[in-house]
Amino acid sequence: MLLKESLKIARLLSEQIVAKAQAQTSQPDDPLLKYLDPGFAPQDRFLKDRSRFLTAQCSRRAGKSNGLAIRLLHTLETHPNAFCPYIALTRESARNIMWPVLQEQDEKFKIGCTFTESNLTVTHPNGARIQLFGADMKNFIRRLKGTKTPGAAIDEAQDFGSHLESLVDDVLTPTLTDYADSWLAITGTPGPVPMGYFYEITQQRKHGFSFHSWTLLENPYLPNAPEFIKDLKQKRQWEDDNPTLLREWRNQWVLDVESLLIKYKEDINAYTALEPLAYNYILGVDIGHKDSDALAVLAWSPQTPNIYLVEEMINAGQDISQLASQIKHLQEKYNVTKIVMDEGALGKKIAEEIRRRFHIPVQPADKMRKMENIALLNDYLRTSRFKAKAESRFAQDSYRVQIDWERSTPDRIVVKESFHSDIIDAVLYAFKESPAFTYQPEVLKPKWGTPAWAAQEITDLERKAEEHFNKQEDPENGFGLEDW
User: Fold this and answer.
1) Is the separation of the CB atoms in 341 and 429 below 8 Å?
2) How many CB atoms lie within 10 A of CB 388?
3) What's the Cα-to-Cα distance from 464 to each of 275, 335, 467, 472, rounded to whole Å?
């Protein structure tokens, strides 16, 4: 009898434990349940992942932005008065990517958020808010440091370059410490060069990120994704192994050099020190209106066909006096022989102010035929005649400025708007003015008294004699030696 009672009690306890576990697993009151979609399993796994650090590598049109939007809105719902940052490469790209998705999800689930476009903030009825940031915004890092958040997102991570790791480790990770269930999600599409922090966390599984991956073929809300890819291949005349097709639509990391606007390759274009020659220097200046001011110093010598990027400065949010001070510093440091500046838009007034007020002889940069100048620069890169240090911003940005093949035509190259490089423009202005284009290798003369010298002397004398007689005309018949 006692045994039966014990078994009964044990069974009841077991049933209670199972019921409690099931309740904790399903959590019928969990707001996340209403966002889940049984027909979209890869996105559901991403949404239900409770890892502190997680990443999603997706093809284009896979629906990762919807997944991020749902994670952010769910976090607001469960954390009243909290703050959640969403970060893209630029403020404009953050707005274009996430703003309409958040509005769509808010309307779909009748959440009742308030959208303030002036500062790109979405406020939940409980006071929690999402704010959209661009990594190009002034004081961006300072505005995030010291905050606390239960959830943060970085989108289009493949475009961030070398500073993504610092953004994660030094800025965002400390903001997660105040919440037991906080998370940081990093999402993107494979980049054109298989390297960098996003490549490491997705392909090499470094830095402890939970990994998710899916493509547009698994997105149930696209009517006929396979047919779309088939039509795209036909339109672009792509083979199955085309790098852009594999990378953007098949979600595979491959080297896609042809998608890059600037053809820098570290193995043939990187240098550590200048050749010991006498150099002249040219300074190119790109004026930042929404972006940064960028200054690039190029070195050239009549003794070499090579052009070197020897120094660069990139600064956002500075005034004319600060810009002029930087120009003056580089001018004196290198004894610069020519300064060319972007005088488009407000640049003309700025350049005139620098000439008049600071007595710096800046000249307008030639901005005509930009794509032709890029083609010439790429020719110098391919033939290893343009050199830049591997750690330079120019080299890093070269891996990020991509051609938009969907909008490009055979006679017109269009650059993707997801990333703009100020330093590449500054380099182009100075490169266009470089006299290194006129380089001619020195012709070495034979040593005096040698057989080669004697042969050269005979050749020179014959050539001069022929030139002399060709110029002579018979005064009676009017013909020269060449008429015989």
Assistant:
1) yes
2) 26
3) 39, 43, 5, 13
Backbone φ, ψ for residue 92 (5° rounding): -65, -40
Which one, of 203, 187, 212, lies nearest residue 44 by Cα? 212
What are the distances in angstroms from CA 440 to CA 303, 305, 447?
Answer: 9, 8, 21
Dihedral, CA atoms, 266, 271, 272, 278, nearest 10 degrees?
-170
Q: What is the pLDDT of residues 370-420, one digit of tens each?
A: 888 899 999 999 999 999 999 999 998 998 898 887 777 777 888 887 778
- Tokens at 447, concatenated: 């040593």
Write the Ramachandran bin of 110: left for phi over 0, alpha for psi from -120 to 50, otherwise beta. Answer: left
Among 160, 162, 204, which Cα is nearest to 186's? 160
* Dihedral of the alpha carbons of 430, 433, 435, 439, in degrees to the nearest 10: 80
Our CA angle for 48, 53, 54, nearest 5°, is: 55
Query: How are beta strands 83-88 and 183-188 bridged, if at all?
Result: unpaired
DSSP category for residue 168: I
* CA atoms of 89 and 410, how far apart (whole Å): 29
For residue 351, what are its two tokens? 């350049």
Give one DSSP letter per residue of 87-156, joined into a string: EESSHHHHHHHHHHHHHHHHHHTT---EEETTTTEEE-TTS-EEEEEETTSTTHHHHHTT---SEEEE-S
The β-bridge partners of 403 are: 415
> Tokens for 313?
């400065």
Stated pTM of the model: 0.70
The stretches of 335-369 forming alpha helices (DSSP H) are 347-358
Give the pLDDT band of residue 330 (cuts 50, 70, 90). very high
How far apart are the C-alpha atoms of 130 and 191, rounded to whole Å?
A: 27
CA neighbours within 13 Å on the CB side: how many for 108?
13
88-111: pLDDT as tens digits: 988 899 999 999 999 999 999 999
